[in-house]
Amino acid sequence: MGKRDQRGVALLIVLLAVALLTVIVLEFTYRSQVEYRRAAAWVRTRQARLVAESGVAIAAEMLARAPLLYSLQHGGDEKKADGLTELWAQRCEPEGPSLCPANAGRGCTIDTFDAHRLAIRIRDESGLYNVNRLAKGARAERDRFARLLGRLGVSPELLDSITEWTSRAARGLTVATPPEMLPRGKTLSYPARAGALSTFGELGLLPNVRATDLIELGRLATVLDPAVADINVNTAPLELLASLHEELDDPTLLAQLQQARCAQPIVDEKALRVALGAERALPFESLLTYRSEYFRVEATAEVDGFYYSVEALLNRPYPKAGGPANRTEWEVRLLYYLPHRGPLIDPAMMEQQVTLDELAGAAPPANGAF
């Protein structure tokens, strides 16, 4: 082989080596970038989760100090009711007929720091229909729930499904998951509850239940301890109140009630009669309460485009009779906690932000000054 041929082979080898090194460098660079972005995404997601968890802590603090805020708003009066005029009732959602205008979408998103955003929504579960009320099997209760389903456009078959699922007669009954919902060749069955439901999501286990029906029902219903029977008239959606009793299914009466409870919480039956202009006891008074002890918190955090959410159920019992009812802070208990990847609160509702200082002053007292 001549020198010229040797030089050609050497050049070819050099070109191949350079090409190979280029591929190795590109592969290394690509992997490095992927790992860096994965690490950055993990950090941002972790930060978002921590911010969302802090949202639950802030919500618990709002509920714990609600007696103090109420006292400041109402000239030192003792807190005897829960209503939509309070700080916790500000919602991350558009204004609707069941919300007081001043509380819709106002002050629900907190400006934290850097590019972080935190939105908090507190929903009064005591102002919703407790599906476990059906466990007693009372005819009047079934009729109320049937009216609620009809108002929501939900199939009335859901009532029978819930009754069968929770009745004692269902003990030992096994339900099979439809084959189309499982991989080929797989089977899955589970026992019926035969008692009170544990969570609202359990309704998804009922046979022949549509997801769209549960979404609609979830706007007005919840699952709590069966002992929680009455519904807070101050916070209940007007649609739900209209379903409870024939006399409440009156647009004029509901508008009058909404105007009264947006001015200040209704504290007892006497105040309810005054608000509605009634001179005698109302037939639906026994279905209502004026206090709330269960609250669902949804907190969504956003960090550089990464969303994380936390959902929690909090219990804040009212002090027992004879105890220090007018103390400035009440006990709040965490009943369950569920993390979610992604937003639970519409990001469009998170544009307007307030600082913690602004949030502290977001509930002006009724008399105009502290």
Name some characteristics of this structure.
two-stranded parallel sheet; disordered C terminus; five-stranded antiparallel sheet; alpha+beta; 370 residues; 36% helix; Ribonucleotide Reductase Protein R1, domain 1; 11 strands; 15% strand; single chain
Can you walk me through this structure?
- The protein is globular and about 115 Å long.
- The C terminus is likely disordered.
- It is built from nine helices and eleven strands.
- Helix 3 runs antiparallel to helix 6.
- It folds into two domains: 279 residues, no CATH class; 90 residues, Ribonucleotide Reductase Protein R1, domain 1.
- 30% of the residues are buried.
- The chain has 370 residues and is an alpha+beta fold.
Gist of the model:
Helices cover 36% and strands 15% of the residues. It is α+β, with helices and mostly antiparallel strands.
